[in-house]
Design brief:
Elements (H helix, E strand, L loop, with lengths): L2 H22 L6 H29 L10 H10 L1 H36 L1 H15 L3 H12 L3 H24 L4 H9 L4 H35 L9 H10 L3 H29 L4 H4 L4
Helix pairs in contact: 1-2, 3-11, 4-5, 4-7, 4-9, 4-10, 5-7, 6-7, 7-9, 9-11, 10-11
């Protein structure tokens, strides 16, 4: 046991915790200072967790096969940039983004059709419930058999995972406008399409963006899991499954770190677009994401 490193990590954790507790209670006169403090709290919390992780691993001499230290993961990450970039390109840029666009777009279009047709509402919506219950572990091998080992089969898995959240949320959003608002549109002699575009879709945007944010993480998880069941010699899921077998756990954590950063950034981009589109919504005007 390396006691000085362990004690130092614990002391840093306690000091950072106390500083964070003080920082969250401060109200500065400058709006820029308040924003900086709001941003600094989660950053400092993350740094604290990394320092505590490093201290525990080195203090208790935890084998790297069980849990590598953050410094070891960082070294592996910066020394494996070409490999990680190729995996990112295969999994995220090809499979995730394509499947996300197709799955969300298809769910949105089907929701419009279901809202327009009572027959589809009674016949197609239960089918959507059925699709949402399909386990990705069972679907992925079938998609690989149908579409091959390349990224197209991963796109199919992502489409299945993202379709139903978009479908359900869009249908709920289209029903969010009140009867009084719809009656007002009828008094203006508005057609169904005019009512949809000028009233119901704007009211549905918070629900639609809720589905988009949920799917931004589901898509990445689905693509990575699908790569466990057949893929070319590239991809995040392929690399994780392969390196675990080789006991290169630091490379596994490096892939996990890249996936976490990519997923968080993707979610953040969708949230920023939501703030621009639904600026009128109380949650946005109140400053909550």
């Amino acid at each position: 046991m390396n006691l000085p490193i362990l004690v130092g990590a614990i002391v840093f954790w306690l000091a950072a915790w106390a500083f964070n507790e003080w920082l969250v209670r401060q109200r500065f006169q400058s709006e820029a200072a308040n924003r900086a403090a709001h941003f600094a709290v989660p950053v400092l919390f993350g740094i604290t967790l990394l320092v505590l992780w490093e201290g525990i691993v080195r203090g208790f001499s935890v084998p790297s096969v069980l849990l590598p230290a953050p410094s070891m993961i960082w070294l592996r990450l910066i020394n494996s940039v070409p490999t990680l970039a190729a995996d990112f390109r295969q999994t995220f840029l090809k499979a995730v983004l394509t499947g996300y666009a197709l799955g969300c777009g298809l769910g949105f279009v089907v929701a419009i059709l279901i809202d327009r047709s009572p027959f589809l509402q009674k016949g197609l919506l239960p089918l959507g419930n059925f699709v949402s219950a399909l386990p990705v572990i069972g679907v992925a091998p079938i998609m690989v058999m149908w579409f091959g080992f390349d990224w197209q089969s991963k796109v199919a898995v992502v489409v299945i995972m993202t379709f139903f959240p978009m479908l359900v949320n869009t249908i709920a959003g289209l029903a969010a406008s009140s009867h009084m608002e719809r009656d007002l549109m009828r008094t203006y002699a508005a057609s169904w399409w005019q009512t949809l575009i000028k009233l119901r879709l704007p009211a549905a945007w918070p629900f639609i963006f809720n589905a988009l944010k949920i799917n931004s993480t589901l898509a990445l998880v689905g693509a990575i899991v699908a790569e466990f069941f057949g893929t070319p010699i590239v991809g995040m899921g392929f690399r994780i499954s392969t390196e675990v077998g080789r006991m290169n756990v630091d490379m596994v954590w490096a892939e996990i770190a890249v996936a976490a950063v990519a997923g968080s950034a993707f979610y953040g981009v969708v949230a920023l677009i939501e703030r621009a589109v639904t600026f009128w919504h109380p949650s946005i005007r109140g400053g909550r994401a």
